[in-house]
Amino acid sequence: MVRSSGRRGARPVRSVLVRCALTILAVAGAAVAPAPSAGPAQAGAQPLNQAAVIVETGAGTWRTVIRFPQESVSGIEALRLAGAEPVTYGFGGLGTAVCALYGVGRPAGPNCLGGTDGDPRYWAYFRAPAGTASFQYSPIGAGATSVRDGDVEGWRWGTGQAPAYRSLPALATPTVSVGDVTVPEGDGDPRAARVTLTLSRPRATDTEVVVTTTDGSALAGVDYRARTDRVRTIRAGRVRASFAVPILGNTTVQPNRTLTVTVTSTSPGVQLGRATGTVTILDDDGWASGAFGVGDARVVRSEEPGTLTVVRVPVARRGPATGPATVTATVTPTGALDGRDVIVPPPRVLTYEPGRRTRWVTLQIPASGLISERTATVSLSAPSGAGIGRGTGVVTVGGRP
Q: Using an 8 Å Cβ cutoff, are 22 and 94 in contact?
């Protein structure tokens, strides 16, 4: 059944709700074996079929490419492969209802299809089979649907509207993106500002990324050392590399300054995602001598299941740093979920020997098709041997544009 409204301009509603929301099982008790997570193709490996799953929850949008060795999988199995965490409820011979995806929806139970509490929202199911270029409302449930190579599945929490369509080739083509970083400038010795370069999915061959810096309010030769057409390599099977910009510190109080880091070209078969990042040079000359300051970072997550993107947040001391000192760094999810958006490490005591200026807090970012941004904070506390000049930094995790 399809859910359709008795009103004009017909949105699908309750009179035919069961056909949309129930996942009518074609074979009672049938199960589909989970597909292995996909990585770079290996010689002799069985070719994997591809499909895309797009889910809009109202709080975020996920666009995930799934791979499976079978000729087809059910719509429910496609959701599982996409990591959508489907919550379902069985209605006996009628099948199984989709109650929630990515934690949005209703608890499993006879009322999970909605409407009984005055809230008309439900999970609407749309499809764009291979060879088509737009979503159509599905006349049957996901359990009775065979998802095949080239298909795009769409789900939206609401009153029957379709999610925004993206083609499978657009989603499956690897993209390379560059992040942002904020780093305290220091007093003289060059300090590296490291931005993260991320592939949306690993490749079977190396990926070369050409990067160039450009002045903003920061000036090359004064505030930083320019880098022009520098080549960084993301190795086969990996999704990350870093690009370092030397920052030239001083002891003059001045505003924060910025420069841009731009990916100008990359290997054939790879597209540009977020092509420009920002390096912010944080003026620390108003801090006490030896004080600690934490920076910020932004990274674009990988989309390949089973991969991790690593982002490093600088915790620097203002010079002169002549004596030993320690400070505790604590990562706290704010808009992020521990384990899903960021793997939160335990609080860590950072130790600075005499002359040591910078340590790094490393965060691991699980792969996801989520394009919405999530945040976490890095907070400094319990300093010993020095004070704190900037005690909180923000890590922002986003998806491909």
A: yes
The count of structural domains within the chain is 2
- Contact of 181 with 349, CB cutoff 8 Å: no
Task: Note whether 240 and 197 are within 8 A (CB).
Answer: yes
Structural domain contains residue 8: no
Based on its alpha-carbon atoms, the radius of gyration of the chain, rounded to whole angstroms, reads 25
Q: Note whether 181 and 261 are within 8 A (CB).
A: no
Give the per-residue SS3 of 96-116: EEEEEECCEECCCCCCCCCCC
In the structure encoding, which two tokens stand for residue 18, read together?
Answer: 């069961």
Q: Which residues contact 59 (CB under 8 A, 6 or more apart)?
A: 104, 372
One domain for residues 162 and 251:
no
Q: Of the residues 171, 193, 225, which one is the last residue of a structural domain? A: 171
CB 210 within 8 Å of CB 266: yes
Q: Which domain holds residue 81?
A: 17-171
CB 84 within 8 A of CB 53: yes
Q: Considering the domain boundaries, does residue 40 fall inside one?
A: yes
In angstroms, rounded to a whole number, what is the distance separating the alpha carbons of residues 363 and 366? 10
CA pair distance 131, 135, nearest whole angstrom: 12
Q: Label the pairing between strands 136-137 and 122-128.
A: antiparallel
Q: How many CB atoms lie within 10 A of CB 253?
A: 9
257 and 364 both lie in a single domain: yes
Render each residue's pLDDT in the chain as its tens digit; 401 residues.
333 333 333 344 333 333 344 433 333 233 333 333 334 444 445 568 999 999 999 989 999 999 999 999 999 999 999 999 999 988 877 777 899 999 999 999 988 887 677 889 999 999 999 999 999 999 888 988 999 999 999 999 999 999 999 999 999 999 999 999 999 998 877 789 999 999 999 999 999 999 999 999 999 999 999 999 999 999 999 999 999 999 998 888 999 999 999 999 999 999 999 999 999 999 999 999 889 999 999 999 999 888 999 999 999 998 777 789 999 999 999 988 888 899 999 999 999 998 888 999 999 999 999 998 999 999 999 999 999 999 999 999 998 87
Nearest to 247 by CA among 277, 275, 279, 207: 279
The DSSP code for 174 is: -
Nearest-angstrom CA–CA distance, 196 and 26 = 46
Domain edge (last residue) among 109, 139, 171: 171
State pTM to two decimals: 0.81
